[in-house]
């Protein structure tokens, strides 16, 4: 039995987890949870025993000086709790239990059981695991984020996909399966990171995960400087791609494939859903800081709507104009030329 001391009674708690390693392309998932921990000033209340789960020749401890005293930080998984004071913009509070660590080297079943023990003791209602993977996706388009669950009821209620994956898996897949057997609702959110620019960090993918998490949990997530970091990241990759004609050509081929595949999604219904997301995320004063799937905050012209699935920007349909009032026929005038072109069919002069 896990006994927790000093942890207050939580309000509608949800556990959000991410693990460095195989499930964390571009460090996008772990950076997203780190952002939540930093912005909401999370307080660590527990850490798993590193000796039980990690191979220190693979994940080595680090030495640092603290006031002239040498100390060691061991690779492990830590749990912190944050309270969202204005979860939905209407004053409702909610608690998040953040789990951030490294994919364990051994004893995965015991590792998952220990995480679930904390979830049970804290009364966690749902577990959301963030992950990122390498994919054939262009960096110039919105980051694809898929939501997956093994729970059919949860899939229907939250508009998620039911997991159909078969093949090698990481700790994200093992933890989600352990939740299924334990009766804990679990969801995994996966961001696709361009394989040709896989080096961390990838703030655009981290932002896309946070956007999807915001929708899933109906909370307002402070973005801090993440939007600007995402913008700078994309501009930097744009410049690198422009310097290499082969890379530029390859990116263009990915863009064409992505736009063609996603074109059916660029429907009126999809645009309406995106506009609803925009309204939910908008700053109450209409100022900057709007989170978008494209990974930037901007003051986009409201006469345009962004379809995040295809990356296309479309003009919002205008209201039909009222038909012009019929004009009274005019008497022909003698222009002196007698030609039809001499007759004035235009509007009268003021």
Automatic annotation (TrEMBL):
Pfam family, one: PAC2
Domain of life: Bacteria
Segments of skewed composition (Acidic residues): 341-350
Biased composition (Basic and acidic residues): 319-333
Region span, Disordered: 278-350
Protein name: PAC2 family protein
Protein's organism: Streptomyces piniterrae
Lineage summary: Bacteria, Bacillati, Actinomycetota, Actinomycetes, Kitasatosporales
